[in-house]
Each structure stands twice: as C-alpha cells, then as structure tokens.
Task: structure prediction
Amino acid sequence: MWIFIDVILWSTNRPDLVMFGWSLQILLEPIVYALIFYILYTYFRQSFPGIYLNIFIALLLLPIILLLPTSLTVVDLPLSYCEATEGFLASHYSYFVNLTLLGLAVIYSIIFIKQTRVTNKYRAGLYLLSAFTLFALTFTGFNIVSTITGDWTLSQYGLFSIPIFALLLGYAIIEFNAFNGRQFSVKLIVLALWLSVGSLLFIVQSDVGRIITFFTLAFTILTGYFLIKSVSK
Result:
C-alpha cells in the first residue's frame, strides 16, 4: 500500500491527492513498525503482548492518528514543486515512534533468541529479525535523510530493501516453517479487517455513521479474537 501511494504521489500534481497521500503515508509508516513488533513478539512468545505493552504502543500512535488532519502533520503544499511541507509530527515524532517500536522489537527478539535453544525456531528467528531490521533501518534511514535535506528522491532508495526483506522472510517461512500457515493467514485477515473498519471512524462524517462504525468495530474485534483463539487450538 505504501508503494502504491508513493507511485500516486510521484505521478500526479493534483494538490488534493498529494496532501491526502502524503498524510496517509505518515500514518502508515508507524503502523508498519507496530506490525513488525507484533509479528516478532507473537512468533517468539506464541501470544500477543500484555495489556500494558499494548496501551504503551497505542499511546505512541494516538497523537499521529488524532492530529493527522492538522498542520502538525502536513503544513502546506508549495505548488511550484508539489512536495508537502511536513509538520512536527511527520518530521520528528513519527521517526521517534518508528525507532522506538523497532527498538522494542529488537530487544524482545534478542531476549527470546537467547532463551531459545539452537533449533529451527532459533534459526528462523535470526532470519526474521535480520529481515525486519534491515528493512526498517533502510526505510527509515533514507526517509530521515530526505527530511533533513529536503530531497525526497532519496527516500525511494529505501524501497530497494523490500526485495531482500521478502527473500529473507520467505526463506524463513519455507525452510524453517516459521509460521503456521493457517494461523498466520487468519491473524493477518482479522488484523486487516480491524484496521479497515477502524479507519472508517476517521472518514465517516455523520454521527449516526460513526456510532454504527464503532459498534461494527467492537463486534469485529470480539469475533476476531474468538476466531484467532479457535484456530490456535
């Protein structure tokens, strides 16, 4: 999705599309890092993080979600070169969130790897950690350089880590059976459903629509939880 939005940004000069796509990318980046943390944590612990850790991650993401439509995210869009001027949340806070989530993922992974005997799970864990860390550092590194220099063409080089990431991830899954295919697929589908329904809260304008969306989200969270539990048995 990030690549798809990036293609739109580089192929259009419509201010409305650029502003929308730019803001959406700012939201997607920390969500990707949160997913990296949850995937690694779930793989090593075979369970979701505790309530306090989930609250901490939610509090990290909350300012970006709530203030996404404000000038703290995107200040303006100079029509001369059609690149957004980023606010504090985009140019500073989002990178703090990304690196914090990556740091948590690396720390927890190293702790769990040390506690694991040298087995297929141990080797697969090393491949997964290497894949996610390489992707995250490359991706964020070039974005930080682009933010400092103002040259957003440099951020495109971060995308070159995606094929390497995909190869390492695929190798870990195939060679070491890193994930239970059925469980992993169900969790991804449920998570995608939660994000899709939850995002409607920021799109729907009417109060009635938001109430319906809220109850729909609560229902999908409840049923998704029990679905994951039933598949895991």
